[in-house]
Amino acid sequence: MSSPPAASGRLFLAALVAITSLGPLALQLFVPSLPAIARDFGVSIGKAQYAFSLSMVAIAFATLVYGPLSDRYGRRPALLGGISLFLVGTVVCALATSIEMLIVGRILQASGSSAGLVVSRAIARDVYGPDRAASVIAYLTVAMILAPFFALILGGLFVDTVGWRYNFAFALACGLIVVALLRMGLPETHQGPRIGIRPSDLLRNYGRLLRSGTFLGYAIHGAGAAGGFFAFAAGAPYLITDVLGRPALEFSLYFAVLSLFFMLANYLAGRYTRRIGLDRMVIWGGVFSVVCAVLAIAALAIWGLTPLALFAPAAFIWLGNGITMPNANAGAINVDARLAGTASGLTAFLTMIVGAICSQAVGSLADGTAWPLVLCVFVITVISCVAGILPAWLRRRAQTGMAA
């Protein structure tokens, strides 16, 4: 197991937090812009939604590349390449003259940012080992939410004052800072054997993971939990700004509260996972989220569409998801230590595919009510909960078989 040099330990952690935060930060800056972008380019909210959902698809396929590349060539080269692509895409978005150009820019930006999403988890496993990986990933999530938390508020403020293009200018500045931190503070952490990346090697490695019920349970659980978040992030701005006629900054403030709940949950996961156990955290958090999703349906049926009825149940859903997601991610990348980067990439791929499907479904089914959003969140939360139970069930069945 490698470890960051003692002389640059704080700089190492700062760099790790920064590369993890860049993608979520850019996303949170972009989310409040969707209604304004649709109006400026004269397109429907459903078409503008492609700038969100197609970027999720781009992240999904890009993660399949960064994971194996980091296992083969090292973590630093994969990160530097991805962040360079992020910077190019951000410039394209800032200068976009049509919705099509903006969608292309978002695809490039998102594809580049996915390097941090994938490689940071692998670095956490490289440095801190399988026993501490879940706690470290949870603490990283607490730290990385702080930047998007303020970015979300700033994004809504930019939209209401100087325009949505300034959100991309701010993202560009943040990307340049991340490059500087990466070059100064993040050493190469991958010290194990390097895997092959020929198509046959990739297919064999992905097949090995996909044949594991334990990996699939953890990966689908994390993807489902994230899918509910992406659906809400895609549908809520339309409901708040267009249907209820509230300013974008108000949506940003409501959404920031959700981020605080998610951050609190990740802190709890980091603090108590080693004591309670990874599988118990996944199962308990998943069941809690399902109960809260049922309450969201009840709140909408009783009170109709109001900010409180929409955001209060969602806050507790993300509390449950925040407890489970770092544990599910750690469980997935620990299935095969040699394929930690590949497993992280495949997990992120499934997360983004599910997120893209959920977000586009909410945008396409938008009917001026909150029902498409709330029902989508409920269905994906139930699927996530069931998948999260699978690894523990398989482990118990295997132990029972061995005892017999």
Mean pLDDT: 84
Task: Return the structural class.
Answer: mainly alpha
CATH superfamily, please?
MFS general substrate transporter like domains
Q: According to CATH, what is the topology?
A: Growth Hormone, Chain: A
Instruction: Provide the CATH architecture.
Output: Up-down Bundle
Q: State the end-to-end CA separation.
A: 36 Å
The assembly state of the depicted protein chains is: single chain
The CATH class, by name, is Mainly Alpha
Helicity level, as a percent range? over 70%
**Largest sheet composition:** none
Unreliably modeled segments: 1-8
Quick one: how many beta strands? 0
Question: Can you give a write-up of this model?
Answer:
It is globular and about 55 Å long. Helices cover 85% and strands 0% of the residues. The two termini are 36 Å apart. Helix 10 runs parallel beside helix 12. It is mostly helical. The longest helix has 63 residues, at 99-161. It contains 14 helices and no strands. The protein has one domain (6-188, 198-403): MFS general substrate transporter like domains (Growth Hormone, Chain: A, Up-down Bundle), CATH 1.20.1250.20.
